[in-house]
Amino acid sequence: MRPHINQGDTGEPSAFRDLTTIRVGGEAGRVFVGRTSDELVHVAGLTWQGPDEWMLLGGGSNTVVSEEGFDGTVILVRSQGIEVLDTPGEPADAVRLRVQAGHSWDAVVEYAVSHGLAGIEALSGIPGSAGAAPVQNIGAYGQEIAEVLHAITFLDYETGAITRMPAAVLGLGYRTSVIKQGRLGIVLSIDLTLRRSADTDNPLSAPVRYQQLADALGVSIGDRVPLAELRRAVIRLRASKGMVLDATDPDSVSAGSFFTNPIVTESAARTLPAVAPRWPLQPEEQAVAVTTFEELASGVPLRRAEAPAEPRLVKLSAAWLIENSGVSRGFALPGSGAAISSRHTLAITNRGGATGEEVAQLARFVQQRVQSEFGVVLQPEPVLVDLEL
Ligand SMILES: Cc1cc2nc3c(=O)[nH]c(=O)nc-3n(C[C@H](O)[C@H](O)[C@H](O)COP(=O)(O)OP(=O)(O)OC[C@H]3O[C@@H](n4cnc5c(N)ncnc54)[C@H](O)[C@@H]3O)c2cc1C
User: Fold this and answer.
1) Is the CB of 138 under 6 A from ligand 1?
2) What is the pLDDT of residues 8-52, one digit of tens each?
3) What is the end-to-end Cα distance of the chain in Å, rounded?
4) Which of 19, 57, 130, 340 is placed for a possible disulfide with 331 were both Cys, Cβ 3.0 to 4.6 Å?
5) Which CATH class is domain 4-77?
6) Gap between the Cα atoms of 122 and 113, Å rounded
7) CATH fold group of domain 254-261+317-385
8) Which mutation among 73, 120, 135 tests ligand 1's pocket best, with the greatest number of atoms within 8 A of CB?
9) What is the pLDDT of residues 140-186, one digit of tens each?
10) 245 in ligand 1 pocket by Cβ < 6 Å?
11) Which whole-number Å values give the CA distances from 363 to 30, 108, 157, 366, in the listed order?
12) What CATH class is the domain 82-240?
């Protein structure tokens, strides 16, 4: 099988500014494309045998690269397909989907909603690929992929083997996983367990958990609404914040939220103004994973240490911290092409011709403002290539 290589014959560009949603970054040394799982395994084998550095890219919606580019091989994940698997022994309403890694995540949600399957409808409108979805455990409007992810098929860089990894061994947490933490390999496909609504004529969503979404729908927390209505409401809300990719919306030229919500001890949170929003973490969210990579690789399920009684941890609102550190929507440093979104303080946007370095410079400025005002260090959410904060 001939791999698809760049310089014309893949139909794919080789500059990161054309491969990422924030549209910054220089050239890749070499681009391989995997349009099926087998092709991904093949191009990975070719790449991993050689001395080149390598990286993966799906939709490029969570990656920011410098103008120096990347002097190695980029493997573009473009495999497609959704299949329904048998689920013997599972509850009658369980429906298992296997999705190839390069499939558009939002197309998966659309498929689920149009087939009356609940569990991912609040994750409507998140850009990128299905294979990247577990990498940072995508989440929005009260749902996370961790709640429905059954397993992944993983091509392991260390062993070269294809393994099935149950979701329980992936260390899925708030915007993180063992893969984001450095476990090398390629997610070839993901298996999701969704629920078929009892009312097939009017399939309902999972219970609404996010207040802003409940308000937009005119319902209470815990209510269920028609699946399609929930999807429409989420996309409307996201679009109002520039968080749906839209060629006509300059605020959507971003990598989504640039910073994660910081997690600090309750006593650190007490030093903040009383009006600063905070949410106590659940005990299981506080428990630190203690399983080693080697154990995980050999299939040992993730173990967590006992959740500490003290100190309790709380999640803060990065958006609130940024706004209250004096950085307002639309803010840009003089002469820079990067700016805070005009509708969402957490997103850094490319207003035209920005460089990766300008994006990082603005991110550092925001970090410094928040740190000097509140003593909290914001962490970037996107993967930064050849850029540092
Ligand atoms: C407008 C906008 C809104 C967003 N809203 C949200 C949101 O609400 N919630 C949220 O969680 N995220 C959000 N994001 C971030 C982003 O969409 C998600 O993180 C998405 O899952 C990234 O997918 P991707 O294919 O574009 O990843 P890429 O940017 O291509 O890759 C991201 C990382 O995953 C790795 N990776 C990619 N594919 C694979 C694979 N098959 N196997 C192993 N590793 C892989 C890459 O190497 C890289 O390290 C938003 C982004 C944008 C631009």
Assistant:
1) yes
2) 467 899 999 999 999 999 999 999 999 999 999 999 999 999 998
3) 41
4) 340
5) alpha beta
6) 10
7) 3.90.78
8) 135
9) 999 999 999 999 999 999 999 999 999 999 999 999 999 999 999 99
10) yes
11) 29, 32, 32, 5
12) alpha beta
